[in-house]
Amino acid sequence: MAVLLVTYDLNRPGKDYPDLLKTIKEYSWSKISESSYAINTTKSPIDVFNQLKPFVDKNDNLYVINLKRPYTGFGPKEVNEWLEQNLPY
After folding, report:
1. Tens of pLDDT along the chain (89 residues)?
2. Which DSSP string corresponds to 12-77?
3. If 0-12 CB within 10 Å is exposed, 13-18 middle and 19+ buried, where does residue 31 land?
């Protein structure tokens, strides 16, 4: 299993992206920030990127990045617990 960071900027005013969020939330996930999610998956970053790309516009930004320990940060208790339970070394 891998933990991937999915982060995006949706730059089209007034557009709703429910399919993007629905697809991200099909994984075990934790919301890291307003437009960043950590997901637990067996898929590669390119596979997840290709799965999500159809849901964003050409002027949007989308990155899928491997996450692993060590890490540092602070935030909501549930996010910290999710990272502690899921991030590999």
Report:
1. 899 999 999 887 777 789 999 999 999 999 999 999 999 999 999 999 999 999 999 899 999 999 999 999 999 999 999 999 999 99
2. STT---HHHHHHHTTSEEEEEETTEEEEEESS-HHHHHHHHGGGS-TTSEEEEEEE-SS------H
3. middle
What whole-number distance in Å separates Cα of residue 45 and Cα of residue 50?
A: 9
Indicate the pTM of the whole model. Answer: 0.93
> Are 8 and 61 within 8 A, CB to CB?
yes
